[in-house]
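Handout, page 2. Input:
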Amino acid sequence: MTKLYEKCASKGHRKMLFEPGDLAWVHLHKDHFPKHCKSKLQPRADGPFKVLRKINDNAYEIDLPSTYGVSTSFNVADLSPFFGLEELRMTPFQEGEDDEDIPAMHARSSPNATNQGPLTRSRAKKLQEQVNSFLTNCNFYT
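Output:
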């Protein structure tokens, strides 16, 4: 009976394992990150951050900057895997475009610019588009 209860209780659960060196998004909860979650329009995840070590199957230590002022160990429920810039999630309403307009993105693309704010999914997609544009315009065989 215990195995049957365990099977029913874990029916909707998915096993998520990270290895040291993997990248993961950290979910920002307002009770854990009060400085970063001031309104419901703020990004709900930040990162990607590197997984430093596995504490157990449910907890991982993340390479989180000290500016956050929280513990660097996170439950697996607060993490989601980072698959790369090509596989960013989009809703069907976006039709390949982001609703967020970042006017200062071109000013930050210079080598002397500093990174301002977290790397959100929309900023990561813009950065990937700039890199792809640069690589297509570059002539490597001259």
